[in-house]
Structure formats: structure tokens, C-alpha cells
């Protein structure tokens, strides 16, 4: 029975090929648009997630805060209100896994005849752990290097390429501010951060060396920034309130006095960025779905025309014993077949265009099976939904009237 | 009387019109026995088409009872009527009413699709019936490839394919020339000789002469019901 009906639906579709093709085109464009938009949206989400994962997870940065001297207020990180002892105290807090006091600035690097300006970060070994940053060539420095202010440096990929070119940087000596530093390691690549800055354009040296030899701080032991990593996303709120209480106590701030430090939740910023892309991706999908809806209305339109045109045929079928549900399923099947065929073509077209976009613009696209499945399910639903009304109209025809129809 | 293929008792049908209720059929009583060959006659507006639609289970009566093969079908629902049309009745129309996109074989087999037979059975039965009406060679052709008379033969094959209790033919020769009409009528005559019950609607006396019994309608009532005096004579 079903096979016979499929054959008949096929015949009916073939009876007016141009019309069937044009009806299908609506579905092709609809499904194609959904597939492309989902691919681009998910691609953007993927790109953001990649960036976030390079930043490190559950991170806080604590910046030394503004202070007021004779009514003049400095901005954030304006004064030396944080120090290494604060960092040590924070590391004792419950839920904190890594604490890295840092001091950074831009300095000119020189190696042989080459020179390059880069961000120099003075910090402790915890910094690399907090940011989940691995060393691909050579080794890192240890706490003993920080204690004895050794002149060793770990460089990012961009620095290695620009300063050393084809040479292996490990073991070579470069100069920062006239001070020779031995390159002991090269960092793995992290790419751009959320602001679009190149994270690989950096040099990491022991904190004490940076303070004494590179930046020359007036208050020994003071730092501009402390990076703090919580053990989990759930622990972040606890760590934040713990740090605030601890720092206020250590800085002897009385009730009512403002904090002399700033705390930023990097993960929260990243999450909001991810949420933005997710929203964008949903929006794109929703807009594309509208074209699917329009395609569905096209199917309904043509099915209604088809029912009217074939009124006599319906009458004949009823006279020789077709029940209402036979007629209903016949027209429904036709609508679903058009919808499905359009969907298949749309999938192929959408995938082709998405891959083309990727090939020509380098935009990240993600093609997921679930997106294709969703498009397919929607197409079937659209076919049934918009095929239902015309099919029911056909099934409810009065056989006598239908037979008399010319 | 219980053996009758068709027995109608006080069958009436009224239509709603702008001028009020219009009685198209006013209390008809009629019985048709198995193997009968009956012609229903009457001018247009006499109620014969309404009667035919009721006999064909395409419509339900306003009043009265209709026993088809012993079963009262007067108040059955649409799907039950569809099953009756499929299993118990065979239709032959004035306009042949073959489906234009289907091969003749598929046209003949269509009632079997709705009866739920498998493909092989459908094929075999359709072939057999096409052979019976002498059109086996056109089995895979489309209806527009053959003449009107041949199309009507195919329609008769389609009406017979489900082995119905009776054949209802509504002006079966109305669209054919006299020579072809004669051929079609001979086919009906032959079928009746084989024992098939046939009810024929026509307004042509010479066509009606083929039947063994003639029922005349006027103003929604049966006005005459008599056996044909002479039969089997070519006109």
C-alpha cells in the first residue's frame, strides 16, 4: 500500500516538473540558509571557545587600586598598593589553586642584529600553570630562579620568530634593557585573545629579576597585578569574597573606606563573550528558519492548487473506494516528499556553500550532524504541517461534487 | 425478498435550496434480485441521478432504508460507505473517469490498492480483467492512447476487478457514437449472461432495451416498472 502510494506521489510530482521544482526551491533555500547560518554561528562559537580555553579557566586578576594624594586620584594600577606578601597570603586562601604576582611592561628586545618590542612579564612559575600554558621547547624557570633573580627568559612564538628567525632560541642570549638574558624555553602558541591581541608576543622572566633589572620599582616587592586561579567555577564567589576581606584587612582599610585594589573576573568576561556568540548563532538560525517557513507556505500554496486541479481525480478515487484517510495520506505524502527532496538538496547546497565560505574567506565554520538533523526534522514537520490543510481539504471533498467537477 | 442485492424502502432525499426544502426523491420502493439487468430511465430532474447516487453509496438518504446485500447502509458513516463502494459496487461513468497519468493496468488495479491487495495479486487480476475486455495489448499504455470506446472497456474492467455484487453504470454510452455504444452494450449483455447484476441509468430508449427490466422515474417517484418485451435484438 505504502509503496503504491509512494509511486503515485512520485507520478504526481513528475506530472508538473517545473512547478514541483519551484516549490522544492523554497525548501532548498530555506534548509540551505539554516545549514549555512548554523555552520557560521557554530563556527563563531567554536572560535570564541578556543580563545577562552587559551586564556585559562576560573581566573581573577587583582590590580593595585587607585589612591588619592592631595585630592588627585590615580587610575587603576596607579599605585603600589599590592605586594608579593599579599600574593602569598592569597595563596593560603581556601579554594585558590594558583597565585601569580606579575609586573609587566613593554620593552625592546635585542638579539644579534635583530630587535623587537614585546610585552615583558615578570612573574612566578604559577603564572604558566594558571594560564595552562605549556613549554614546547626547552624548560621553564623555578621558584629558586625567582628567589635569586636569575636572568632567564621564556619567550612566546611570535618573539621567537621575529627575533631568532630560523635559529633555535634555547640557550641563546638576548638583551632586555641592556641586561643579558638566557632564553631557556619557548612557549606553545595560544593565538589571539578576546581583544585580538597576540598572546604569543610575550617574554616571561622571574618576577624579582623584572623588578630589579627591567622595570626598577621604587618599592621593592610591590606588584601591579596578581593573577589568581580558583579551583573551580563554583569556588569563584568564595575566593572573591575571601580575597576582598583578606586584602582589606592586610591594607588596614577601615569600614567605609574604598578598596585600594580592583578585582576582575576574567572568566565572567569570557562567558559573556561566549553568550553573545551563542545568541548571535541562535538569531542567525532563527532568521534562516523564517525562509524555511516561507518555503513551507509555498508547499501549502501549491498543494492547494493541486487539490483543486485534481478534484475530479479525488472524486474517482473516492467512488472506487478510497477512504478519507487514503486521500489524506496521499496528499500528505506528496507534500512530505517535496519537502524532503527539497531538504536533501538544501543540505547539499548549504554544505557546499559553507565549505566554499571556509575555503575562500578562512572563516571558521562548524558543520554538525545535529544541525543537519534539525534541518531535516524541521523540513519533515513543515511538510506535514503545511501539507495537512490541503490534504484534509481533499479528503473532505464530497464525492458527488468532486465527480461532477470539470 | 431477503435474497435481493438491493432493497430500498420508502427512500427519500431532500435538498436545502434557497426556496426551501426540495424533495428530489419521494419515497421509492424497489428491489433488485441477483442477476438482474435493470435500466433506470427518466428525464433530467426526475430524481434518477439522486437515486443512482444513493444506490452507489455516494450519498445518504434523508428518509427510508437501503439494504445492500442484506445490510442497511442508509445511515453508515463515510468510511464504511467507502469500503462498501470498494468491495460491493462497481462504477462505470459516462466520462470513463480513468486517471490520466496511470497506465491502463494501474487504472484497473486501483480499487485493489484501496482493498489492500499485494502488488502481485493486483497485477494478475488487472491483466485478467483487461484480457476479458480485450485490451491486454494496451496494459502499459496511458488512457489518452486509446479510443473512447476502449477507455470505457477499461473502466468496465476496473468496475469488475473487485468482484462486486453489482455494477452501476451511469449513462455509460453518453459520450460514445452509436456504433461504439452498441459494442459497449454487448459487453454489458455478455457480463449479465455470466450472472453479473447490472443497473444502468440512461435516457435513451434503445440503450434501455438491452436491459431485462425498465424502471421509469418522474418527479422523484417510480412511475413505471416493467420487463422489456423483446431483448437481444440489434437496433
TrEMBL record, chain A:
<comment type="similarity">
    <text>Belongs to the ABC-4 integral membrane protein family.</text>
</comment>
<keyword id="KW-1133">Transmembrane helix</keyword>
<feature type="transmembrane region" description="Helical">
    <location>
        <begin position="328"/>
        <end position="357"/>
    </location>
</feature>
<dbReference type="InterPro" id="IPR003838">
    <property type="entry name" value="ABC3_permease_C"/>
</dbReference>
<feature type="transmembrane region" description="Helical">
    <location>
        <begin position="21"/>
        <end position="41"/>
    </location>
</feature>
<protein>
    <recommendedName>
        <fullName>Multidrug ABC transporter substrate-binding protein</fullName>
    </recommendedName>
</protein>
<feature type="domain" description="MacB-like periplasmic core">
    <location>
        <begin position="20"/>
        <end position="245"/>
    </location>
</feature>
<dbReference type="Pfam" id="PF12704">
    <property type="entry name" value="MacB_PCD"/>
</dbReference>
<keyword id="KW-0812">Transmembrane</keyword>
<dbReference type="GO" id="GO:0005886">
    <property type="term" value="C:plasma membrane"/>
</dbReference>
<feature type="transmembrane region" description="Helical">
    <location>
        <begin position="282"/>
        <end position="307"/>
    </location>
</feature>
<dbReference type="InterPro" id="IPR025857">
    <property type="entry name" value="MacB_PCD"/>
</dbReference>
<feature type="transmembrane region" description="Helical">
    <location>
        <begin position="363"/>
        <end position="389"/>
    </location>
</feature>
<keyword id="KW-1003">Cell membrane</keyword>
<feature type="domain" description="ABC3 transporter permease C-terminal">
    <location>
        <begin position="286"/>
        <end position="399"/>
    </location>
</feature>
<dbReference type="Pfam" id="PF02687">
    <property type="entry name" value="FtsX"/>
</dbReference>
<dbReference type="GO" id="GO:0022857">
    <property type="term" value="F:transmembrane transporter activity"/>
</dbReference>
<keyword id="KW-0472">Membrane</keyword>
<dbReference type="InterPro" id="IPR050250">
    <property type="entry name" value="Macrolide_Exporter_MacB"/>
</dbReference>
Automatic annotation (TrEMBL), chain B:
<dbReference type="GO" id="GO:0016887">
    <property type="term" value="F:ATP hydrolysis activity"/>
</dbReference>
<dbReference type="GO" id="GO:0022857">
    <property type="term" value="F:transmembrane transporter activity"/>
</dbReference>
<dbReference type="InterPro" id="IPR017871">
    <property type="entry name" value="ABC_transporter-like_CS"/>
</dbReference>
<dbReference type="GO" id="GO:0005524">
    <property type="term" value="F:ATP binding"/>
</dbReference>
<keyword id="KW-0472">Membrane</keyword>
<dbReference type="InterPro" id="IPR003593">
    <property type="entry name" value="AAA+_ATPase"/>
</dbReference>
<dbReference type="InterPro" id="IPR017911">
    <property type="entry name" value="MacB-like_ATP-bd"/>
</dbReference>
<protein>
    <submittedName>
        <fullName>ABC transporter related protein</fullName>
    </submittedName>
</protein>
<keyword id="KW-1003">Cell membrane</keyword>
<feature type="domain" description="ABC transporter">
    <location>
        <begin position="6"/>
        <end position="235"/>
    </location>
</feature>
<keyword id="KW-0046">Antibiotic resistance</keyword>
<dbReference type="GO" id="GO:0098796">
    <property type="term" value="C:membrane protein complex"/>
</dbReference>
<dbReference type="InterPro" id="IPR027417">
    <property type="entry name" value="P-loop_NTPase"/>
</dbReference>
<keyword id="KW-0547">Nucleotide-binding</keyword>
<keyword id="KW-1133">Transmembrane helix</keyword>
<comment type="similarity">
    <text>Belongs to the ABC transporter superfamily. Macrolide exporter (TC 3.A.1.122) family.</text>
</comment>
<dbReference type="InterPro" id="IPR015854">
    <property type="entry name" value="ABC_transpr_LolD-like"/>
</dbReference>
<dbReference type="GO" id="GO:0046677">
    <property type="term" value="P:response to antibiotic"/>
</dbReference>
<keyword id="KW-0812">Transmembrane</keyword>
<keyword id="KW-0067">ATP-binding</keyword>
<keyword id="KW-0813">Transport</keyword>
<dbReference type="Pfam" id="PF00005">
    <property type="entry name" value="ABC_tran"/>
</dbReference>
Amino acid at each position: 500500500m505504502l509503496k503504491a502510494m509512494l509511486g503515485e506521489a512520485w507520478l504526481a510530482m513528475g506530472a508538473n516538473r517545473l512547478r514541483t521544482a519551484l516549490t522544492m526551491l523554497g525548501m532548498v533555500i530555506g534548509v540551505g540558509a539554516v545549514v549555512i547560518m548554523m555552520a557560521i554561528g557554530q563556527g563563531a562559537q567554536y572560535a570564541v571557545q578556543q580563545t577562552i580555553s587559551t586564556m585559562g579557566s576560573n581566573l581573577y586578576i587583582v590590580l593595585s587600586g587607585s589612591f588619592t594624594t592631595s585630592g588627585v586620584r590615580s587610575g587603576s594600577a596607579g599605585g603600589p598598593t599590592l605586594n608579593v606578601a599579599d600574593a602569598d597570603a592569597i595563596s593560603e586562601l581556601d579554594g585558590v589553586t594558583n597565585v601569580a604576582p606579575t609586573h609587566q611592561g613593554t620593552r625592546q628586545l635585542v638579539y644579534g642584529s635583530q630587535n623587537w618590542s614585546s610585552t615583558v612579564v615578570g612573574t612566578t612559575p604559577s603564572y604558566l600553570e594558571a594560564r595552562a600554558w605549556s613549554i614546547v621547547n626547552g624548560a621553564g624557570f623555578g621558584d629558586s630562579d625567582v628567589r635569586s633573580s636569575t636572568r632567564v627568559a621564556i619567550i612566546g612564538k611570535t618573539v621567537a620568530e621575529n627575533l631568532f628567525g630560523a635559529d633555535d632560541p634555547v640557550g641563546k642570549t638576548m638583551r632586555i634593557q641592556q641586561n643579558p638574558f638566557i632564553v631557556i624555553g619557548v612557549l606553545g602558541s595560544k593565538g589571539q585573545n578576546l581583544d585580538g591581541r597576540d598572546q604569543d608576543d610575550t617574554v616571561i622572566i622571574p618576577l624579582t629579576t623584572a623588578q630589579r633589572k627591567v622595570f626598577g620599582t621604587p618599592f621593592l616587592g610591590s606588584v601591579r597585578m596578581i593573577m589568581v586561579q580558583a579551583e573551580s567555577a563554583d569556588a569563584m564567589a568564595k575566593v572573591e569574597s575571601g580575597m576582598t576581606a583578606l586584602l582589606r584587612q592586610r591594607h588596614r582599610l577601615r569600614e567605609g573606606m574604598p578598596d585600594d585594589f580592583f578585582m576582575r573576573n576574567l572568566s565572567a568576561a569570557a562567558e559573556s563573550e561566549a553568550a553573545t556568540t551563542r545568541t548571535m548563532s541562535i538569531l542567525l538560525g532563527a532568521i534562516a528558519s523564517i525562509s524555511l517557513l516561507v518555503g513551507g507556505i509555498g508547499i501549502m500554496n501549491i498543494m492547494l492548487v493541486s487539490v483543486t486541479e485534481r478534484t475530479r481525480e479525488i472524486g474517482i478515487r473516492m467512488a472506487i473506494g478510497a477512504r478519507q484517510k487514503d486521500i489524506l495520506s496521499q496528499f500528505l505524502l506528496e507534500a512530505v516528499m517535496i519537502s524532503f527532496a527539497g531538504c536533501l538538496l538544501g543540505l547539499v547546497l548549504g554544505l557546499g556553500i559553507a565549505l566554499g565560505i571556509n575555503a575562500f574567506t578562512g572563516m571558521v565554520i562548524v558543520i554538525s550532524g545535529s544541525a543537519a538533523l534539525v534541518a531535516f526534522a524541521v523540513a519533515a514537520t513543515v511538510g506535514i504541517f503545511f501539507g495537512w490543510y490541503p490534504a484534509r481539504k481533499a479528503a473532505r471533498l464530497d464525492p458527488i461534487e468532486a465527480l461532477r467537477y470539470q | 425478498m431477503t435474497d435481493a442485492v438491493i432493497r430500498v424502502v420508502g427512500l427519500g432525499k431532500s435538498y436545502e435550496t434557497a426556496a426551501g426544502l426540495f424533495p428530489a426523491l419521494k419515497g421509492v420502493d424497489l428491489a433488485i434480485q441477483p442477476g438482474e439487468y435493470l435500466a433506470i430511465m427518466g428525464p433530467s430532474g426526475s430524481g434518477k441521478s439522486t437515486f443512482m447516487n444513493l444506490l452507489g453509496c455516494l450519498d445518504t438518504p434523508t428518509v427510508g432504508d437501503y439494504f445492500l446485500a442484506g445490510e442497511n447502509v442508509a445511515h453508515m458513516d463515510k468510511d464504511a460507505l467507502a469500503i462498501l463502494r470498494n468491495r460491493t459496487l462497481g462504477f462505470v461513468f459516462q466520462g470513463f473517469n480513468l486517471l490520466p497519468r496511470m497506465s491502463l493496468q494501474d487504472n484497473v488495479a486501483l480499487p485493489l490498492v484501496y482493498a489492500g491487495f499485494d502488488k502481485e495479486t493486483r497485477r494478475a487480476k488487472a491483466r485478467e480483467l483487461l484480457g476479458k475486455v480485450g485490451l491486454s495489448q494496451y496494459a502499459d499504455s496511458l488512457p489518452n492512447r486509446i479510443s473512447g470506446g476502449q477507455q470505457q472497456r477499461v473502466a468496465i474492467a476496473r468496475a469488475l476487478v473487485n468482484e462486486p455484487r453489482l455494477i452501476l453504470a451511469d449513462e455509460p454510452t453518453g459520450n460514445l457514437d452509436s456504433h461504439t455504444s452498441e459494442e459497449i452494450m454487448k459487453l454489458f449483455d455478455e457480463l449479465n449472461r455470466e450472472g453479473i447484476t447490472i443497473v444502468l441509468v440512461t435516457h435513451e430508449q434503445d440503450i434501455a432495451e438491452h436491459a431485462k427490466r425498465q424502471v421509469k422515474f418522474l418527479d422523484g417517484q417510480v412511475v413505471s416498472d416493467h420487463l422489456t418485451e423483446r431483448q437481444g435484438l440489434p437496433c
